[in-house]
Design goal:
Layout (H helix, E strand, L loop, with lengths): L1 E9 L2 E6 L2 E7 L1 H6 L7 E5 L4 E5 L5 E2 L4 E2 L3 E6 L7 H13 L3 E6 L9 H10 L3 E4 L8 H8 L2 E6 L6 H9 L9 H7 L8 E5 L2 E5 L24 H4 L16 H7 L5 H19 L2
Parallel strand pairs: 3-5, 8-9, 8-11, 9-10, 11-13
Antiparallel strand pairs: 1-2, 1-4, 2-3, 4-5, 6-7, 12-13
Helix pairs in contact: 2-9
Bound molecules: guanosine-5'-triphosphate (GTP), magnesium ion and zinc ion.
Length: 284
């Protein structure tokens, strides 16, 4: 039996990296039924028969994109297509819920854009690591690589923001297929169809298909406020200790929003996500 890491799984066939070599394997039926093998899984392989026998316990797993044992999630946004900050904030929360360090990466910085500095301020105040990069010009790719050393780094974000382009810039070659922007926006098609892990020096990167839907499982609506770090300095001054900072009287968080100390946009999205979670949970 040999230990390896699953780098890709397509229709029941898995690529497993063992001692620097990729081996194509099937999974034992019991694994298929009870516990689907995911990219990122550390597995025991019966090397003679090319069969995955066991999955080692996981640190974490995501369903969309499907991947296990992630150390960092690189959430990519851009100006074209325009960033969906509602999805971005949900991804940031999902990362924290799964004990994954999130890094927010604003790509295509080579394109003129007046908003990026304001957005950077919003997220820096929220205690989120924020990096401006360009896959095209190579700007800050060295900084991105520095952050990624050691561990598995998963790229996530909307289609066409440049996840595969960034991975190619990191690898210094055309590994991942890059989509045509205009065709993608008009048809909404993903170029990357599968999650795939690539070994680079002492770390791994995972390319994933762009996606736009995310559910925050296991997060109670009244716990959401704990995932907005910029609320922390104010929340003890709210009149009610159970304040959710929505429209309660004498809410110090809302005061901080009105005084410009907390970004209005972040609080607005907080209310949106809160309402969505509350609605879902009122049916259960
Ligand atoms: N100007 C500019 N264009 C970029 C940059 N990075 C990527 N692009 C373009 O953006 C388009 C989409 O890039 P992809 O790398 O395929 O995007 P993706 O996020 O992998 O998309 P999916 O695989 O569909 O999820 C392509 O036309 C790229 O050439 C950049 O830094 N600057
Ligand atoms: Mg891609
Ligand atoms: Zn409050």
């Amino acid at each position: 039996m040999q230990k390896g890491i699953v780098t890709k799984g397509i229709s029941g066939m898995f690529s497993v990296l063992i001692d620097g070599k990729i081996i194509q394997c099937f999974a034992r039926r019991k694994l298929k039924d009870d516990n689907i093998v995911l990219a990122g899984d550390i597995v025991d392989v019966d090397i003679d028969n090319c069969v995955i026998e066991n999955i080692k316990p996981r640190k974490n797993k995501l369903i969309r994109p499907p991947i296990a044992n992630i150390d960092r999630i690189i959430i990519v946004i851009s100006c074209v297509p325009e960033a969906d900050f509602y999805l971005t904030d949900k991804l940031l929360i999902a990362a924290r819920l799964n004990n994954i360090e999130p890094i927010l990466c604003f790509n295509k910085i080579d394109i003129k854009n007046d908003l990026v500095n304001e957005i950077e301020q919003q997220y820096l105040r929220a205690g989120i690591r924020f990096l401006k990069v360009s896959a095209k010009s190579g700007y800050n790719i060295d900084k991105l690589i520095e952050i990624m050393h050691g561990g598995l780094n998963c790229f996530a974000g909307q289609s066409a923001v440049g996840k595969s382009s960034l991975i190619n810039a990191i690898l210094g070659c055309n590994y991942s297929e890059i989509g045509d922007l205009s065709a993608k926006i008009s048809r909404g098609k993903n170029t990357t169809r599968h999650t795939e892990i690539i070994a680079v020096d002492d770390f791994f990167v995972a390319d994933t298909p762009g996606f736009s839907l995310l559910k925050l499982d296991n997060l109670k609506y009244n716990q959401l406020k704990d995932y907005f770090d910029e609320f922390i300095p104010y929340q003890n001054d709210c009149k009610f200790s159970s304040c959710n900072h929505i429209q309660e009287p004498d809410c110090a968080v809302i005061d901080a929003v009105n005084n410009g100390k907390i970004a209005f946009e972040r609080h607005k999205r907080y209310i949106e996500i809160y309402s969505e979670l509350k609605k879902e949970q009122s049916y259960n």
